[in-house]
Amino acid sequence: MRLVDVDDRSLQDIKEGLIDLGDAMAGILSRIGDESSTARVKVSPSGRIIVGTKGNHEGELQVHGCLSVNINNVTHDVDIDTANAVRFQGKKQEVGTAIPQTGLYNQGDIVWNNAPQLGGYMGWVCIRTGTPGMWVEFGKIENNPIA
Question: Quick count: other Cβ atoms within 10 Å of Cβ 131?
Fold first, then answer.
């Protein structure tokens, strides 16, 4: 498609219209819940995801919520709640009952023990990258519990 005989002012109007449309779409996409919800998600220019509620001023976000992923019953005692594994500073962390038998794992990845017991361990840490890597137990749980 070619634009013919379009003056600078018309181009500026088109550009401003597209910017306004983008802002409106961002506003719609950032709403969580129905039209009456005040919950909002904002992505900063650096890519940081911020969860909170709509503030008193245009564009203001009051941050006091939590981010939940694949969670049906949200609690507010943590800032991030997810039903799946997470990657924290490049290290994968998940919960399980034993070391993984399949999948690629990197040195430093952790599987937290889902059922820790006296004399057992808090979990397993990958000490050599591989499929599924080499794993060792960590965090011995002493046999003298504190009441």
Answer: 10
